[in-house]
């Protein structure tokens, strides 16, 4: 082996050693494993003050039935009927507290029953969404928009988000174990001060992966993505 060949081999070895060192350093400083409890959302309605008055009587208030995991939110005793061009869904739960705008969250199959094509959206993004008739014990309202299929998302506090290198609005992948497990992509991160760690998906997505309330999923790291 001549001098040039020896020099080239030495340089190659140095480069390989440096790359290995950087890899070890990156693995040492990588984000810890994030295990996320699952919350499954069935169809439900969030009402504005105006629509609450129309459906349940002027000045009426929601009756708390049970708290949900996110602080300040709860399932109410009150239910409504949703009516669309093709059919209706009865006893749809109202969630509290009241909001500034009424929002109807349904599944894709619910849309088939009602005869509406609700877009997959993040909560609050109601522009150009279909309307639907909501019927309560004291009256009814015909909404011109507000029906959506909720985009799967994760609620997380700022402290946890910082620990796991997450930002509000970013999308991540999660791994679901079990016989029907797999990778669920495009899960949106929602960071808020009072959030409790939880991933929200609808009934159809949960059934597809064999998930139940309280099951846990795991964030997929960059190194894990190379395996699929």
Keywords summarizing the entry:
alpha/beta, Barwin-like endoglucanases, PTAC, Phosphate propanoyltransferase, six-stranded mixed barrel, 228 residues, EC 2.3.1.222, single chain, nine-stranded mixed sheet, 25% helix
Radius of gyration, in Å, reads 24 Å
Order of helices and strands: HEEHEEEEHEEEEEHEEEHEH
Number of strands: 15
The helicity comes to: 25-40%
Structural class by secondary-structure content: alpha/beta
Question: Low-confidence parts lasting 5 or more residues at pLDDT below 50?
Answer: 23-29
Mean pLDDT: 89
Q: How many distinct helices?
A: 6
InterPro entries: PTAC (IPR008300)
Protein name: Phosphate propanoyltransferase
GO cellular component, one term: bacterial microcompartment
Catalytic activity: propanoyl-CoA + phosphate = propanoyl phosphate + CoA
In terms of topology, how is this protein built?
Elements: H1 3-28, E1 35-41, E2 44-48, H2 49-56, E3 64-67, E4 74-83, E5 88-99, E6 103-105, H3 108-114, E7 120-121, E8 133-135, E9 140-142, E10 147-150, E11 153-156, H4 158-163, E12 171-176, E13 182-191, E14 198-202, H5 203-209, E15 216-219, H6 222-225
Parallel strand pairs: 1-14, 2-5, 6-10, 7-10, 11-13
Antiparallel strand pairs: 1-15, 2-6, 3-4, 4-5, 4-8, 8-9, 11-14, 12-13, 12-15
Describe this structure in words.
By secondary structure, this protein is of the alpha/beta class. It folds into two domains: 77 residues, Barwin-like endoglucanases; 109 residues, no CATH class. Helices cover 25% and strands 36% of the residues. A hairpin with a 4-residue loop joins strand 8 and strand 9. The longest helix is centred in the first third of the chain and has 26 residues. The protein is elongated.
């Amino acid at each position: 082996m001549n001098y040039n060949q020896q020099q080239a081999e030495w340089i190659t070895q140095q480069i390989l050693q440096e790359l290995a060192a950087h890899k070890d350093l990156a693995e040492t400083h990588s984000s810890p494993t994030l295990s996320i409890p699952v919350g499954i959302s069935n169809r439900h309605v969030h009402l504005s003050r105006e629509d609450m008055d129309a459906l349940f009587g002027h000045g009426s208030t929601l009756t708390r039935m049970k708290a949900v995991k996110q602080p300040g939110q709860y399932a109410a005793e009150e239910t409504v009927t949703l009516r669309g061009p093709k059919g209706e869904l009865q006893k749809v739960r109202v969630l509290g507290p009241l909001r500034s705008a009424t929002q109807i969250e349904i599944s894709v199959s619910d849309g088939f029953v009602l005869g509406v094509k609700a877009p997959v959206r993040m909560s609050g993004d109601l522009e150009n969404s279909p309307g639907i008739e909501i019927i309560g014990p004291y009256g009814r309202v015909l909404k011109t928009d507000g029906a959506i299929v909720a985009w799967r998302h994760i609620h997380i506090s700022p402290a946890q988000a910082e620990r796991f290198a997450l930002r509000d609005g970013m999308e991540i992948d999660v791994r679901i174990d079990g016989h029907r497990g797999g990778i669920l992509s495009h899960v949106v991160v929602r960071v808020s001060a009072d959030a409790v760690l939880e991933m929200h998906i609808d009934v159809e997505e949960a059934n597809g992966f064999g998930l139940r309330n309280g099951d846990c999923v795991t964030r997929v790291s960059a190194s894990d993505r190379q395996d699929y």
